[in-house]
Give the backbone structure.
Amino acid sequence: MPIWAVAPSSTNMNNQQQLASLGLFDAKVPRYTSYPTAPHFSNDVETGKFGRWITAIPPGSEISLYLHVPFCSRLCWFCACRTQGTTSIEPVQAYLETLKQELRILKKSLPADVSLSRLHWGGGTPTLMSAEMMTDLASAVFEVAPLSETAEFSVEIDPNEIDDARLDALAAAGMNRASIGIQDFNEEIQKTIGRLQSYEVTKNAIEKIRDRGINSLNADILYGLPNQTNERITESVQKLLSLSPDRVALYGYAHVPWMARRQSMIPSDQLPTPQERLELFETARKLFAWDGYAEIGIDHFALKGDGLESAQEAGKLRRNFQGYTDDQANVLIGVGASSISRFPQGYAQNDASTSKHTSAVRKGQFSTARGHSFSEDDLLRGRIIEALMCDFKVSTAEITRDFDISTAKLRACFDAVNNAFNGLLIASDEMLFIPEAVRPLTRIIARHFDAYDMSAAQHSSAI
C-alpha cells in the first residue's frame, strides 16, 4: 500500500496536536541560513569595509566563491530569488563582462596563494550562457584563484537550458557537481507554478551529465505546492529516486507574494494547509529514508558516504545560503548582483540592482550596499542556532570553550527554552538536545536564541 493511502496512527495524530499547540502551524520564522538574517543587514558594511575584510584573509587560505547569474529565459512563478527575465543573450553577455571585471578587482585585493574549496555558479539560470561564455567565465575565475585538490565546482543546471556543447564546456572547466531543480514532476502542478520540466527532459539531462564523468548530483524538490497531494508527491519522489541523486534538498515552498510579486500568479486557495504541508513533508521524508538516504538537518538527504553525511557524522556540518554544506572554509565571497559574502567579521551584500552593481564595478569598485558586522553576541547566538539546525543539539563543552559564557548561564538559557516547549527538549549541563518527535519545531526553537526583532521582517511558514 503506498504511503499516501496509510491512515495516520493515533500516535502521529497526538504528536501533530502537540506540535500545533507549540505553534508549528502558525509561526513565521527564518530559515536561518545566516545569523543575523538578511532583513537585519544595514548600511553598516560598505565597499571600504568589504575590501578590508578581503585583505585580512590569511595568505594560503582556502575560500569559497559564489557567482550569481540573475537571468532567466522565463520567470518561474514560485521562485523568490533575485532574477530577471531576458529574451536575448545580449544582457547576459554584458553581465558576463561585469563579472569578469569584478573578478579582476577581487584579484587585486586577495592575499597570495588563495585557493577555492568550493566554486558555485547560481542564479537565475547560469546555463543560459553559451559554451564560449562559460569557458570565458571559468578562465576569469581561475585567474583569481585555482581550485584546491579536493574542491567542488558545482553549477545550477536547468534541464530546459542545456545542450552537449555547454555540458562539454562545463566538464572541461572542471565542474564535478551538478545541481538540478525538480520542484515537482506533476504536470498540473508545474503549470500552476509556471515551471514546465518533464521527467524525460530531466532524465536526459542527468544522463548527459553523467556521461561526462560528473557523478555528483544535487536535486531540489518542493513540498507545499498548489494542488500537491500525498499521492502526487509520492509519485514525484519515486521518479526522483529513480535518477539516484547523491543529495536532495526537500524545501517547503515559501509563498511570499509581498516579496516576490510573480507569486501572485499562484492561486493561494489551492495551497495546502499547514497541517497538509507537514503530511507532505513526512510522506517525502519517509520515502527518502526507506530508499537508504541519510537525513541531513531539517530538510536535506544524502546517500550514505556522501560528504554531507560524513560531515554530519563528524559534527562538521555547516549551514549557509545554499542550505547545508560540508565546506569548512570560513570565508565565502559572493560575486555578482545581490550576492552575499561571509567573513569571520560579518556579512557583505552586493547591490541587488543589476544596473547599480554594474555601474559600481565599471568604476573599478565593489558594489557593496549592505551587510552586518558581527558582535560577540552575534557569534555566540549564531553558533548555537547553527548547531541546532545542523545537529539538533548544542554542546556545552564546545560553546564554553569558544565563547565567554559560563556553564551555569548557558544551562539557564537551555532550561528557559526547554520550559517554553513544555519540557519536550532535553536540557542538561552537557547539552540542549531536540528529540526526533520535536524536530519539526527546530526553526521555532532556534528563534528563541535570536536576539533580533522580527516584527518588521516577514518570514515564511515554520513548516
Residues 1-11 have pLDDT under 50 and may be disordered. The longest helix spans residues 90-109.
